[in-house]
Amino acid sequence: MDLLKTLLLYMTLLYTSSVQSMPDVDGYLANMVTPTPYVSVEVTPVPTATPTPVPTVEVSVNPEYKTLVMGSKGDDVTRLQETLKTYGYYVGEVDGRYGNQTRQAVELFQYHHGLSADGIAGRATQSVLYDSGAVRPAPQASETPAPEVTEVPAETPAPTLVPPRVPTDTPAPTDTPAPTPEPEFLAMEGWVIQVQGQELPLAVEVGNKGATEPVLPYSYGDTLYVPLQQVLEGAGVFVIPSDMDNPGYAFAVGDNVYRLSYGMDQQGNPINLEMTLGGTRQLMPIRDIRLVGDMLYLPCESITAVTGITFAKGDQQIILVTLP
């Protein structure tokens, strides 16, 4: 009986001790962290700007132009590169090869003239470039100013002791050669042009204005220029002018029939000289041409290379012209 009482008393002490050692439930729940509720934020989409379409240049498509693509070579590609370079679209070397730079220049030109920017110089693209007279120069990229950076002052380092510099002899400055000045297109005053032994008149009537203009040779550096049409007419060669939309003229020397054509840029200067023999384009060493009044001046070197007409400086300020 005493053993039973002793066992009951022992179990009562164990239960009381375990209850007293349990943590405070209210304090434990109070220390728990309540999660932050999720808040939905509605984002307003930013509208995308619609680019302004480039107006298409209206021009009649010339079916004589050949389509030029990547890998094309020859004079047609050379003319394409030169003309694109004139308006600032092509910046590479004029080598007569249709490569990536030429394709990119064609794409940029097509985009700014409302054409399909596929990089292929087809008949429509060449007609706008050569015949429309409404070519838009390549836009210049605007310079974007760099963002202003606020400099954070850094700790000033301790000064470093620099040993004194021993002076040395300063070499004398080398004279930099002055750049070669650009030659001028100058009239050769006092000179006359003699064709087949017959001197051209000092002034001729040009166009339908009824006014006369002096017939003089011109020089551009070492290159001699003459008005070919007036030289041909002075030699008795019949010259057939083209229409106003395609400036130029046709003429025959011996048994050969030539056609001369050119275009005009937006400043009214002649460009893109072409000479064909029997419909075939002829290579010319110089394609630069000038307009003096209403007379078109061509470099004698190119005239000789295509037609065989020769030019020589004679005594007493005479330009001697000989037809083949």
Number of strands: 16
Strand order of the largest sheet: 1-6-7-14-13
Over the alpha carbons, how many angstroms does the gyration radius reach? 43 Å
* Largest beta-sheet details: 5 strands, antiparallel
What's the N-to-C terminus distance?
156 Å
List keywords for this structure.
elongated; 5-stranded antiparallel β-sheet; 324 residues; Muramoyl-pentapeptide Carboxypeptidase, domain 1; 7 helices; alpha+beta
Structural commentary:
- The chain is α+β, with helices and mostly antiparallel strands and 324 residues long.
- 23% of the residues lie in helices and 21% in strands.
- The protein is built from seven helices and 16 strands.
- The strands form four sheets. A five-stranded antiparallel β-sheet has the order 1-6-7-14-13. The chain has a five-stranded antiparallel β-sheet with strand order 8-9-10-11-12.
- Strand 9 (248-253) and strand 10 form a beta hairpin.
- The longest helix has 20 residues, at 2-21.
- The protein is elongated, with a radius of gyration of 43 Å.
- The chain starts with a helix and ends with a strand.
List the helices and strands and how they pair.
Elements lengths: L1 H20 L3 H6 L44 H12 L13 H12 L11 H9 L53 E3 L4 E4 L2 E2 L3 E3 L6 E3 L3 E3 L2 E5 H7 L4 E3 L6 E6 L2 E9 L5 E8 L2 E2 L8 E3 L2 E5 H8 L2 E5 L3 E5 L2
Parallel strand pairs: 2-16
Antiparallel strand pairs: 1-6, 2-3, 4-5, 6-7, 7-14, 8-9, 9-10, 10-11, 11-12, 13-14, 15-16
Summarize the structure.
This protein is an alpha+beta fold and 324 residues long. It has helices spanning 2-21, 25-30, 75-86, 100-111, 123-131, 228-234, 300-307; strands spanning 185-187, 192-195, 198-199, 203-205, 212-214, 218-220, 223-227, 239-241, 248-253, 256-264, 270-277, 280-281, 290-292, 295-299, 310-314, 318-322.
